[in-house]
Amino acid sequence: MANQAPGGGHRAAPVHTDPEEVSVLAALSAVADPVRIQLIRELAHSADWTRSCGSFDVPVGKAALSHHFSVLRGVGLVEQRDEGPRRVNRLRREEFEARFPGLLDLLLRAGDTD
Amino acid sequence: MANQAPGGGHRAAPVHTDPEEVSVLAALSAVADPVRIQLIRELAHSADWTRSCGSFDVPVGKAALSHHFSVLRGVGLVEQRDEGPRRVNRLRREEFEARFPGLLDLLLRAGDTD
DNA sequence: CCGAGTGTTCGATGGATATCTTACAGTCCC
DNA sequence: GGGACTGTAAGATATCCATCGAACACTCGG
């Protein structure tokens, strides 16, 4: 298999979804969760590819955290890339905005913590 | 008690919430439900105060329906008024739009049924 | 090669909530 | 007043999903 660096087993590459093929209901459900809102906000305040999954200050274990990122990936809001031992993230602002105009702004603008 | 028309028991007037005092999370949770999305869309295509609760084509019993309207009222998206034996509805478009810009449009514009 | 660090997967658990059934409260019309 | 109609309330059930613990996979540095 002509794949990547020689000599190695690799972690399964994260599967990404195009926001364009995501339903409104799915997007809203994904985003209607306090932990995920917190992740999105924190991510929005950081530069792309600078935040690893474990670097977020959320009150859940790493298993749940992994699940949350999976959900966010599943609606095309977050993109992930493996960088050595860790998995770094970025918000797919433009693509998501194109499919769900205003939704991301709503999450980031609203001044409440919940 | 000096309350309303004389001689009469009355149905409890529906309690309304100002969208201004609703959290983003609550609004998103309320709106992230297939039945409620359907209600909102159907309501949006009708003139104000013309649709009674029972007049919506949703696949749930009337008890569940009553619950859904209660949720929508609770986030300030729907206003209700008693009109004889039935309770008629209207969308609080402007107020909701002011608090959650773009959210209602998102629900109405997206061309998918789910 | 081993150990520390990072993240995923699996199974189980608990809590929230959407739903139904039944019973009740008003309203209107005869 | 009786009966049809409309909606709410309360209790029971069921389903979904967020969370955790434990085991595993991969990366990197000694």
From TrEMBL, chains A, B:
It comes from the Bacteria. GO terms for molecular function: DNA-binding transcription factor activity. Residues 16-111 form the HTH arsR-type domain. SUPFAM superfamilies: Winged helix' DNA-binding domain. PROSITE patterns: HTH_ARSR_2 (PS50987). CDD domains: HTH_ARSR. SMART domains: HTH_ARSR. This is Transcriptional regulator. It comes from Streptomyces phaeofaciens.
